[in-house]
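Protein Record: Sequence and Backbone Structure Tokens
======================================================

Structure line: whole-number tokens from a learned vocabulary of local backbone shapes, matched to residues.

Purpose: to set a sequence beside its fold so the mapping can be learned.

___
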Amino acid sequence: QVQLVESGGGLVQAGGSLRLSCAASGRTFSTYNMGWFRQALGKEREFVASINWNGASTKYVSSVKGRFTISRDNAKNTMYLQMNSLKPEDTAVYYCGALRTGNPYQKNDYDYWGQGTQVTVSS
């Protein structure tokens, strides 16, 4: 069993930066692939980024490439999303998820979810 808690969201101006954290409980954290999804008002939850169990493989949605960086520290049971050059269209609730096996792009394949953290980018 894995419990996930996101933090680090907030209100920033366009061009600013935020660092999101996802703290996990559970002794098997390092066996899970991890991902970030986001859901804007009136839209479906969409894939943002993922990282495999040892951090060797990362994936990003095209719209955040070069601006966002996903990372993890298995010793601290924590995953991060560094978000730079933020745009108003990045405004959403950001969720972290844990995936034992499946397609990291597919939200329905994830086994556990955090409660979400709000990111608002003003113009």
Remarks:
- The chain has no helices and eleven strands.
